[in-house]
Specification:
This protein is α+β, with helices and mostly antiparallel strands. The protein has one domain (about 5-250): NADH Oxidase (3-Layer(aba) Sandwich). It is built from eight helices and nine strands. The strands form two sheets. It has a seven-stranded antiparallel β-sheet with strand order 1-6-5-4-7-9-8, sandwiched between helices. A two-stranded antiparallel ribbon has the order 2-3. β4 and β5 form a beta hairpin. The longest helix is centred in the last third of the chain and has 20 residues, at about 190-210.
Length: about 250
């Protein structure tokens, strides 16, 4: 016996042809300027420079086939910190900028529908050499970190917001991806919400593979309390909301 609600949600995933008919009614078709590909920030905000792409000195080369073969979800982490260089590498491999095409589109290290890239990357930094405990946001255009705020109860709050999954509070850093839906809606209308979810999967898989190069592990997490997570990273829950997260840390050697 089918659940009517499940049936409707399945139809949403399948009904791309109908949704494409709405493209003529999007803001792009009306000549509205695209939204920026990066959230603005204050000129005097605290920013942290990251190691530029290609200048990583302490990464261990990993063959792609080996990285794919060895990829696992890890829920046990050591107390070792990540270096800022390692963090720089993870950020670039998941959302790094390759070429800015115009105000609203860019080529990055992961694919995105229409090169729209509707995600923002927040970091809950617990054990990163040279970084104080706090919540940061990745600035892909500048390849820098922006300090959003400091929160002394960060570990407790992330565990509560993720339904008591304590291993998330044991990580060196937790990646939290938010969606800014209008970046996709501007071009795709109702179809935007399907491809935003697809984009999140692309990003997290790159994180899994990149972790193999630094002796770290991660675990994709989609089980969380939506309102608590949105409040934790201080987004409004409507025009921007949490869509996915992944804790990262060094893993015990066998």
């Amino acid at each position: 016996m089918h659940d009517p609600l499940l049936d409707r949600r399945r139809e949403f995933l399948k009904d791309t042809i109908r949704l494409e008919m709405d493209f003529s009614q999007t803001d792009q078709s009306r000549g509205v300027d695209p939204p920026p590909i990066e959230k603005p920030f204050a000129a005097d905000a605290v920013r942290v420079k990251l190691t530029p792409p290609g200048q990583w000195q302490r990464l261990t080369p990993v063959e792609l086939l080996a990285a794919i073969r060895d990829r696992r979800s890890h829920r046990r982490f050591t107390r070792d910190a990540l270096t800022l260089e390692e963090l720089s590498f993870l950020l670039w491999t998941t959302q790094g900028m390759q070429q800015r095409l115009d105000q609203g589109t860019a080529l990055r290290t992961v694919p995105s529908a229409g090169a729209r890239h509707a995600l923002e990357t927040y970091l809950l930094a617990f054990r990163i050499e040279g970084l104080e405990l706090g919540v940061y946001r990745y600035l892909p255009l500048e390849h820098e970190l922006l300090l959003e705020f400091q929160e002394p109860q960060l570990r407790r709050r992330i565990v509560e917001a993720t339904l008591r999954q304590s291993f998330i509070g044991d990580a060196a850093v937790t990646f939290v991806w938010t969606a800014v839906p209008y970046r996709m809606e501007w071009r795709y209308g109702l179809a935007a919400h399907k491809v935003i979810a697809l984009d999140a999967g692309h990003v997290c898989q790159n994180l899994y593979l990149a972790c193999e190069a630094i002796g770290a592990g991660t675990c994709a997490v989609a089980a969380y309390h939506q309102q608590l997570m949105d409040r934790l990273v201080r987004v409004d829950g409507d025009d921007e909301f949490v869509i996915y997260l992944a804790p990262v840390g060094k893993i015990p050697t066998v």
